[in-house]
From TrEMBL:
GO terms for biological process: glucose metabolic process; pentose-phosphate shunt, oxidative branch. Residues 12-191 form the Glucose-6-phosphate dehydrogenase NAD-binding domain. InterPro entries: G6P_DH, G6P_DH_AS, G6P_DH_C, G6P_DH_NAD-bd, NAD(P)-bd_dom_sf. It catalyses: D-glucose 6-phosphate + NADP(+) = 6-phospho-D-glucono-1,5-lactone + NADPH + H(+). One of its GO terms (molecular function) is NADP binding. Its EC number is 1.1.1.49. Coiled coil: none annotated. It is an enzyme of class 1 (oxidoreductase). NCBIfam families: zwf (TIGR00871). This is Glucose-6-phosphate 1-dehydrogenase. Catalyzes the oxidation of glucose 6-phosphate to 6-phosphogluconolactone. Substrate binds at H182, K186, E220, D239, K344, K349. The gene is zwf.
Amino acid sequence: MTSKNQTSCTIVIFGATGDLAKRKLFPSIYNLYTKGELGEHFAVIGAARREWSHETLREKVEDSLKESKIQVNDDLDDFLTHFHYISLNVTSKESYQNLHSLITEVEGKFSIPGNRMFYLAMAPQFFGTIASYLKSEGLTNETGWNRLMIEKPFGHDLPSAKKLNNEIREAFREDEIYRIDHYLGKEMVQNIEVIRFANAIFEPLWSNRYISNVQITSSETLGVEERGGYYDKSGALRDMVQNHILQMVALLAMEPPIRLSTDEIRSEKIKALRALRPISGDQIDQYFVRGQYGPGAVKNQEVPGYRSEPNVDAESNTETFVAGKLLIDNFRWAGVPFYIRTGKRMAEKSTKIVIQFKDMPMNLYYKSNDEVHPNLLIIHIQPEEGISIVLNGEKLDYSPQTTPVKLDYAHNSTDKLNTPEAYEKLLHDAIKGDATNFTHWDEVALSWKYVDEIDNAWQQKKATQFPNYEAGSMGPKESDHLLAQDGFHWWSLDE
Ligand SMILES: NC(=O)C1=CN([C@@H]2O[C@H](COP(=O)(O)OP(=O)(O)OC[C@H]3O[C@@H](n4cnc5c(N)ncnc54)[C@H](OP(=O)(O)O)[C@@H]3O)[C@@H](O)[C@H]2O)C=CC1
Ligand SMILES: O=C1O[C@H](COP(=O)(O)O)[C@@H](O)[C@H](O)[C@H]1O
């Protein structure tokens, strides 16, 4: 018997021999199994071109669990019997008949009532083809539910994203499509709503009346590793800002939804994204800064510049760093800059949001030479998770002066940098049919529209002289000027 918490379904992973399946998906599925979320009425079918047998896939799954350092229990053998493999080429129509037969076979074997999850862990050029064959070859079931989980990148710009969306919408309804943004699976990104909407002390202050600026940093110490081919055509704006950063902006800026349903939350996020002020070409330098790393040292290790990375053009003008000032033109946020920055080969691996509050109208402790310390709310996304609040307390030296005092509720992350944790949550939600932490097409389209304008403005300008920041630094100095022109500065990642 399946308990009411367990969902019976077949998960078909296209790209099961690839990196994502090995590092994220298999460990996540195992965690869901050991936590009792999957029960016995489920099956996983791995699909890719390699000539693997069911047994090879099971061995690879076991290896992936070992490599992920997951605690494996004595349920492992039972778990592995749920895995099956089919060698196919996704571009060949005939493959889908064989896959259909295998799905029917496993549905019989594990008494699965036709619920099918199709996970596209493959290069994006295949997304449309797979979706369309799934429909035309009759793999989308009439008796159970059908869901399509689709990896990033969702297009390269707005026109290509629209084209892809039209292709998949021919086969799947919007409510059947789960577009992944793995940041939405992170514990503290999900917590933004809780911090805002479950704490009476924050929401009344959450506007231009009390907040002076918001800062979002997502910095990485890694370079492009083995993804130079993809990254050189993408750059930081498309790779990080269009999706993860704008999703965090939307969660911070949205109005409280009338209830916590997928549709209501998405609708508020969409409104926030619609209010983003477009940046015109002649204003671009006042609002956005791009950078590319040169050689340097990260954590005392010498590393090469971006242009010397494998599969990167030796004269590449792709940005590996972006900083920006976003303005949200609505009643709540008019006049409050949202500063964002993200980049590769920076000094720290850290994702952090700092909400800086306005100063007191009259600070009784203020002396003309004293530094005024604003109150800060810091949301630590990774590697620590939690929040800190920076207040002013009395200096313990009999002087009528204040000193910043930090209240910390932060702990070391179990979600270690893009680990199975986020994927586990997202897989769990998708299996349960909860699309809240996935991106609706309107969010994707609005994000591309915003980002395309920045990219167009950059294309029309003379290219910035790259490289313009040293690996191991916090990006080009122009990123500091972006805030300095408004009288602010980036808060340190150690805050
Ligand atoms: N790896 C990661 O950490 C992340 C990946 N992603 C996204 O996930 C997706 C997959 O990435 P990743 O796993 O790294 O990619 P890989 O290159 O490691 O894997 C690609 C997979 O596609 C299969 N494949 C390629 N061509 C065909 C074909 N014609 N027919 C059937 N199978 C095919 C390959 O198997 P075979 O050669 O056996 O056919 C392989 O299993 C991409 O969209 C990526 O952007 C997103 C976030 C993180
Ligand atoms: O989507 C992506 O995200 C990772 C960063 O993810 P994180 O969870 O480690 O912060 C980034 O390295 C990659 O380039 C990008 O495609």
